[in-house]
Each structure stands twice: as C-alpha cells, then as structure tokens.
Write a structure and sequence with these properties.
The structure is a homodimer of 269-residue chains. Chain A has helices at 26-34, 39-47, 132-138, 140-166, 169-187, 201-208, 212-224, 240-247; strands at residues 53-55, 60-62, 70-76, 79-84, 90-96, 101-102, 115-118, 122-128, 194-196, 228-231, 234-237. Chain A is α+β, with helices and mostly antiparallel strands and 269 residues long. Chain A has 2 domains: 26-156, Jelly Rolls, CATH 2.60.120.10; 167-247, Orthogonal Bundle (Arc Repressor Mutant, subunit A), CATH 1.10.10. In chain A, the strands form 3 sheets. A 4-stranded antiparallel sheet of chain A has the order 1-8-3-6, with no helix packed on it. In chain A, strands 2-7-4-5 form a 4-stranded antiparallel sheet. The first copy, chain A, has a 3-stranded antiparallel sheet with strand order 9-11-10. In chain A, helix 3 crosses helix 4 (140-166), helix 5 (169-187) crosses helix 8 and helix 6 (201-208) crosses helix 7 (212-224). The longest helix of chain A is centred in the middle third of the chain and has 27 residues, at 140-166. Chain A is globular. Chains A and B meet through strand 5, helix 3 and helix 4 of A and strand 5, helix 3 and helix 4 of B. Chain A binds a DNA duplex (30 and 30 nucleotides) through helix 7.
DNA sequence: CGTCCTCTTGACGGCTTTCAATAAAAGTGG
DNA sequence: CCACTTTTATTGAAAGCCGTCAAGAGGACG
C-alpha cells in the first residue's frame, strides 16, 4: 500500500467462450452456499464474471470520489478498502478475499466512497451497476441474495467496530486472525488451520488501528503463548478456542436466512 | 442503558384506519427524498407502518441471539444497537434516529446479531421479514431502494470505523456530532444548528469507545474553543467547518444513486 | 429537603505510540 | 550464485493519550 498505485490494466484475456461450468468460480460457489439457484439465476450470476481484468499488486481498483459505475467480483488475490486521513494516517475499512464482491456497499451512492487497492496481484471482474436493474426486475431471488450478503457484510463490520471501539490490541488481533480464517473457510472449506496471510505488519496495523511496532509485539506475544505459529507468509492457528474467548468472536457466515427469499425467478428473461 | 431493560410492550394503540396520508411519517418522507414512488409502491411502504408499538425508555426492541423475524421502522424516539463485551464494557454500534429502519442489516441472518435498546421512549413499527418476499417479487423498485439505503448505512458505518480506528478522541467526538446533525437534517431539513441530544455522557462514551470522563473533557474543550454550545439536552454547532476539518467528515446522505433502479413497479399486486 | 443520578475535576497509572537503531529478509544486477 | 540495495521485521527506551480511581458539585424528582 506504500507502493505507487498503478493504473488499472484493462487487458482482458479472452475468457473461455460459452457459459462457464457451474461452480467454476469462487464467487458462484460462495453464492451457492447461501441459496440454491436455478439455471436462469445462475446465468445472471455467471454474467458477472464475463469480464476478467488482471490487476497488479498495488493497483487502484476503485478511486474514492470517482463516479461509481461498476461492482467487482474479486476472483483472485486480496484487496482492501482504505481511507487516508488528513495526517497521512491510513485505515483499512475492509479486507476483500477471493469470491467477495467489491462495491456492493456503494450501490446506493453515485460516487465511490473509498479507495480499493490490491494487496496482491489478482483478477477482478467488473460488472456495471446498470446491470443490476435487470436483476431486480427479473431475478428477484438473486436480488434478495445480494441483499442478504450485503447484510452479512454489514454485521461483520459492526462486529469489527465493536472490537475497535471497546477492545484492546490483543482482542483486535485475535478477532482479525479468526475472522480472516473463517472467511477463507467459506470458499475453501477444506482449508486447515494454516493459511497464507499476504499482509505486512504495517498493513495489519492499518486494519487494526495500531502501529506496526505494536502489531509486531502482539504477534510475538501470541506466538510465545502458543496461540499461533508464523512461517511467513503463512499463519497457523493453534488454539482457536483461546483466541475466540479472547476476542469474543462469533462466526456469522454460517447463519444465512433465505426464508424470505422470493420462491423462484420469473423465466421471462 | 444502565436501567433495567423492559420487556417489549405489545399494546398497539389502534392506528388511524385507512391508509395514512402520503408523507405523513418521517419514514416515508425519508424514502421519498431518495426516490419518487408511485401509489402502488407507496402502499407497500405505508404497510410497514401499520403496526405501532409504544416503547418505554430502556426497552429492548431486539435481543441478540433471538430469531430475527421482523424489521422495525423507528417512528419516534432514539435507539441504539449495542454489543456487550466480556468485561462488561459496552459498545454502541449504531444510533438510530426517527425515520430509520432497524434490522435492515440483519435481513440475511436468521438470528439477531445485536441488541437494540431504546435511548428514549418512542414508537416502533414492526414489519415481518416475511413480507419482504412480496416486495422483492412485486415492487422491485422498493427493493432497490432498500438496498440503496442499506448501502448508505454501510458506508456511514465504514466512515465511523475509520475514525474509530485511526482517529483521536477529539476527532471521534467531532465526527459524532456532525454525523448526528446531518442525519437529523435528512428528515428535518429546517432544523437549524441546534438539536436535542438525548444521550448521557456515558452513552456517548459507548458510542465513541471512550470513558465518560474523557467524553466530559472533550465536550468541555469543544465548548471552551467555541466550537459548540451545550444547554442540556440541547447542543448547538457553532463552527461546523472547523469540526468538519477536524474529523475529515464527509456527508454521504445527499448522494443517492437511483439510476440503476428498475423503472417502475409491476402493478399486479 | 433529601435522595439519586449525572456531570465535573484532579491525580495517577497503563496501554499504546513515537523515536531510534539493528537485524533479517527479499529483491536486483552482475 | 554472490555483493548490493531496499524493504520489512525486531527490539529498547521514553513520551503521551486516555483510562482508572476518587471525591465533590450540580440537577431532577419525589
């Protein structure tokens, strides 16, 4: 994030022709975990990934203040939404993992509220906001699914706010590690307790509102206490229960309610 | 919030028969500020306020962990979403003002994520989640409007997260005062710079992640610097620009994008 | 007029930051 | 594959913002 920000690279490697196989993508597999979709609905969703765009590390995917014209499905790599405050202090507002949607938040706004920056190289799939019209009109079930996911995001954000407001550095760090782990498990259920964490300690500091020095001290403490194990860039969670108690962490990603979803889509596309 | 929490009072004073006049409520007037609605659409929304329930100060509107079965339109009074952490520390996740919707966030979850407590006495209008089905099915424009509002809420939450993570006590306080003021202006455009703030200093502390002692010191400092004026329970903002610079505050509530909303509702209710 | 709640103010202490310097790791070019 | 450079991680010492503790003042309400 200290690197110069590259311009967006629009080169689109011609994606495989024809509809992709079901569940070919981390995005679709994430959605299907939350609700069964019929073929028509799946077609709407597949369309969101038609356009792949490669992004180098450090690239600015979304620039704050510019017109908000598209969403992005993050297909590979990690990204962050970030805000720079007056004094050059930065705060990471959200970490985006593969399979998550960037910009769902800002659907209601005409300008992008925050920067979104690639933490690693990766690929995103831009999807014009304008296409949402058809989804709301013709695939209400998919629309409801987006609403549900947006709600999940928001609850997760509120949990984070709680730990940022009332929590100590230890609690924030524990929450951070557990939350990333749980979210990685959503699209990657057979991931063990070890995962790749492509953030520098400075970056973790910007997520948690701590300095890099203190981040280092917390990580050292956790390691010495046998709670985690670090082999850069991999982290292994050794005592999830202890961390969970420490942070008061609660997993929200398993608890989707689709009872109120419209029964099925109209087929008049 | 230190008071014992009352049980929810289900006594429903028989509301005026027939549909309420358009824009009779702060909720409808807030929605209409964001998008024009036709009569059918308006009927859906009016239905959300059919059921008024009086709430005493301190009442628990939503209990964390219980099944999430309804949304609430907050018609009168103020409320907060609140989380209690292990050590009895509390964090207010959000302040709800009249005209705002409680529980839109949790639409995707089957259990309520957080408590919601009345700060003052007031009235709420419960609205079963199940009724959202019809809205998504038959009034996609209204559904889109909810999505947009939920997005606004989330962006506002992210701004708050930024100031909680990277901001000092002064900056948090400035942000808090400005944000409340802007949000009150949404449903009450001719409100001046003076408004009623029905929170004790302890409560403000729970919003900002500060102790009541430090809240008191910040308010004193602001007053002495001529930034605000306090005549309990009223606050007047004397130098909005200075506060705005201090907090890096940006008003998001004026910037709704409805370009992607479906053109009009189907009329087949 | 007394009780309770909230606000106010001071002194002290601790968690976290800041400053600074070194070590380790990662990237670069020969 | 090895010097060299740059970035990142590590560690110590001192300072600061904010929390804790405690006591008193002011208001609301019966």
């Amino acid at each position: 994030m200290d690197q110069p920000l590259h311009q967006r690279d629009r080169s689109t490697p011609p994606s495989a022709p024809g509809a992709p196989a079901r569940a070919a993508s981390c995005f679709a597999s994430r959605l299907e975990r939350y609700a069964k979709l019929n073929d028509d609905e799946f077609r709407f969703i597949a369309r969101m990934e038609d356009n792949e765009t490669a992004m180098p590390k450090g690239a600015l995917v979304v620039a704050a203040g510019t017109p908000a014209e598209e969403l992005f499905v993050l297909k590979e790599g990690w990204a962050v939404a970030r805000r720079t405050l007056p004094d050059n202090r930065g705060q990471v507002l959200r970490v985006y993992l593969p399979g998550e949607v960037i910009g769902l938040t800002g659907l209601g706004l005409s300008r992008n509220a925050h920067d979104v920056v690639m933490l690693t190289s990766g690929t995103v799939c831009p999807f014009p906001n304008a296409h949402m019209t058809a989804i709301y009109d013709k695939a209400p079930r998919v629309a409801a699914l987006f609403t549900a996911i947006s709600g999940l995001d928001q609850v997760s954000l509120m949990d984070r706010l709680a730990v940022m407001g009332a929590g100590t550095a230890r609690e924030r760090m524990a929450h951070f590690l557990l939350d990333l782990h749980e979210r990685l498990l959503v699209t990657n259920p057979d991931l063990g307790r070890r995962f790749r964490l492509p953030l520098r300690q400075v970056d973790i500091g910007e997520v948690l509102g701590l300095t890099k020095v203190y981040v280092n001290r917390m990580l050292k403490a956790f390691t010495e206490e046998g709670l985690i194990e670090i082999h850069r860039p991999y982290v292994r969670i050794l005592k999830p229960e202890v961390l969970r108690d420490l942070a008061g962490y609660e997993n929200r990603y398993d608890d989707v309610d689709h009872s109120w979803f419209p029964a099925a889509s109209r087929n008049d596309l």
